[in-house]
From TrEMBL:
It holds the Pfam family NAD_binding_2. PANTHER family: 6-PHOSPHOGLUCONATE DEHYDROGENASE. This is 6-phosphogluconate dehydrogenase, decarboxylating. Homodimer. Signal peptide: none annotated. Residues 181-471 form the 6-phosphogluconate dehydrogenase C-terminal domain. The active site is at K185, E192. It comes from Jiangella rhizosphaerae. Keywords: Gluconate utilization, NADP, Oxidoreductase, Pentose shunt. Belongs to the 6-phosphogluconate dehydrogenase family. One of its GO terms (molecular function) is NADP binding. One of its GO terms (biological process) is D-gluconate metabolic process. SMART domains: 6PGD (SM01350). It catalyses: 6-phospho-D-gluconate + NADP(+) = D-ribulose 5-phosphate + CO2 + NADPH.
Length: 480
């Protein structure tokens, strides 16, 4: 007998459970399965009234509960658990059926799994899902990869359960073949790291440069949230900063241990950017900043190093400085998105994905951590020119960075003077200046390489490959 469930979810820990409930609340019949059956029973007991669930104890029952072609969502840990679950279910499926991996898989694993399942006639849809528990339940940003054919069948359901942007557009679009969805989710997370680092630096500057207390800084962030920086992260930053610890009466931020952790997608973004040769320096600095914060031993040794005498700015300068920090934050944010989108572009070329960069910015407008008014601007930039080589080539962004550059330089210089670390702001400004530079000292680097390793160089005035015999002061063209 054919099953009746339009979708099934296996792996009913909090993300899987909430996703299953989201489907059910939207009117879909949802088959449920979990390795440990008690989780399945718990879900039905607690939330069975929210929609139509078909609980299954065994893999066979679960598969039988699904209408054809089957849509089977796997929500287990990335890595070996995902492979184990795929190996368990794939033999029970028939050509045309779909396995959807909604976990945080590495895109290379997704490519491998997609190729293997394609050989068996099965669709494998590696899907980035952003928004955490809350998003999974009420509407996440969804980034599905895999085949067009799978998206035709599955896409409308994913769009239904996804977050909606302010204009009502679903925050879900078909990203591209095989691992494209998980790749885009990874870069999303990398950008999230950069956003968070920049906000943290802005806070540090307001605290130790402007001399503001956390409650006052919360006010500043609330003000910024009403402007071009309007975003979820700025909004929650104000809340975090305003929070007072019940136990001590201190601002909570002063009680939290200052060692940031990470789960790994930011690190992957940087590792892959290195392989692709894309300078994502903002994301890299964010990953390194978290890593540095965690080296308690190193920091204990470093605390004794000399620095400038700590003096906050005079009150009248502090206010001006705070508005300069807003400009530096905005400009640095534009740079980290520019770098992230460069990585997407490079990955599209490398892996054969036709990525619609404007649409990708569009589906990050709701549901996910980096949701922000600003993303509309990126969509608009790519709508004007889909082949835009860089976001900095967009007139509007270029104009804004030009207008912000004086403040941006003042902030980075002030940070250096006061001894406040701003790796994110500084690397963003260096990236901007490097792109602007008519000539880079890379010419000298090439000269050094030719000197010590005969690595050759190109000339600005003639075609060809050249090597200088430095000891004899003789240069000649090399045969290629
Ligand atoms: P469990 O409840 O039986 O532990 C997150 O860990 C989710 O993934 C849980 O629902 C968990 O099932 C499931 N899970 C983890 N490893 C698994 C595996 N190797 N096979 C099947 N399910 C697994």
């Amino acid at each position: 007998m054919a099953g009746t469930a339009q979708i099934g979810v296996t792996g009913l820990a909090v993300m899987g459970r909430n996703l299953a409930r989201n489907f059910a609340r939207n009117g879909y019949t949802v088959a449920l399965h979990n390795r440990t059956a008690s989780r399945t029973r718990d879900l039905v007991e607690q939330f069975g009234h929210e929609g139509t669930f078909v609980p299954a104890e065994t893999a066979e029952e679960f598969v039988a509960a699904l209408e054809r072609p089957r849509r089977l969502v796997v929500m287990v840990k990335a890595g070996a658990a995902t492979d184990a679950v795929i190996d368990e279910f794939a033999p029970l499926l028939e050509p045309g059926d779909m396995i959807i991996d909604g976990g945080n898989a590495h895109f290379a694993d997704t490519r491998r799994r997609e190729a293997a399942l394609r050989e068996r006639g099965l669709h494998f849809v590696g899907t980035g899902i952003s928004g955490g528990e809350e998003g999974a339940l009420n509407g996440p940003s969804i980034m599905p990869g895999g085949s067009e054919e799978a998206y035709e069948s599955l896409g409308p359901m994913l769009e239904t359960i996804s977050a909606k942007a302010a204009d009502g557009t679903p925050c879900c679009t078909h990203i591209g073949a095989d691992g494209a969805g998980h790749f885009v989710k990874m870069v999303h997370n990398g950008i999230e790291y950069a956003d968070m680092q920049l906000i943290a630096e802005a806070y540090d500057l307001l605290r130790h440069g402007a001399g503001y207390e956390p409650a006052r800084i919360a006010e500043v962030f609330r003000g910024w949230n009403a402007g071009r920086l309007d975003s979820y992260l700025i909004e929650i930053t104000a809340e975090v900063l305003a929070h007072v610890d019940a136990a001590t009466g201190q601002p909570l931020v002063d009680v939290i241990l200052d060692q940031a952790e990470q789960k790994g997608t930011g690190r992957w973004t940087v590792q892959i950017a290195l392989d692709l040769g894309v300078p994502v320096s903002g994301i890299a600095e964010a990953v390194f900043a978290r890593s540095l914060s965690g080296h308690a031993d190193l920091r204990a040794v470093g605390r004794g190093l000399a620095g400038p005498t700590p003096v906050a700015l005079p009150a009248d300068e502090a206010e001006r400085f705070a508005s300069q920090v807003e400009e530096a934050l905005y400009a640095s944010k534009v740079v980290s998105y520019t770098q992230g989108f460069h990585q997407l572009q490079a990955a599209g070329a490398e892996y054969g994905w036709t990525l619609d960069l404007g649409a990708i910015a569009g589906i990050w407008r709701g549901g996910c951590i980096i949701r922000a008014a600003f993303l509309d601007r990126i969509t608009a930039a790519y709508a004007k020119d889909a082949a835009l080589p860089s976001l900095l080539a967009d007139e509007q962004f270029a104009g804004e960075l030009g207008a912000a550059q004086d403040a941006w330089r003042t902030v980075v210089a002030t940070a250096a003077r006061l001894g406040i670390p701003v790796p994110g702001f500084a690397t963003a400004l260096s990236y901007y200046d490097a792109l602007r530079a008519p000539r880079l000292p890379a010419a000298l680097t090439q000269g050094q390489r030719d000197f010590f390793g005969a690595h050759t160089y190109h000339r600005v005035d003639r075609d060809g490959v050249f090597h200088t015999t430095w000891s004899e002061d003789r240069s000649e063209e090399q045969q290629s």
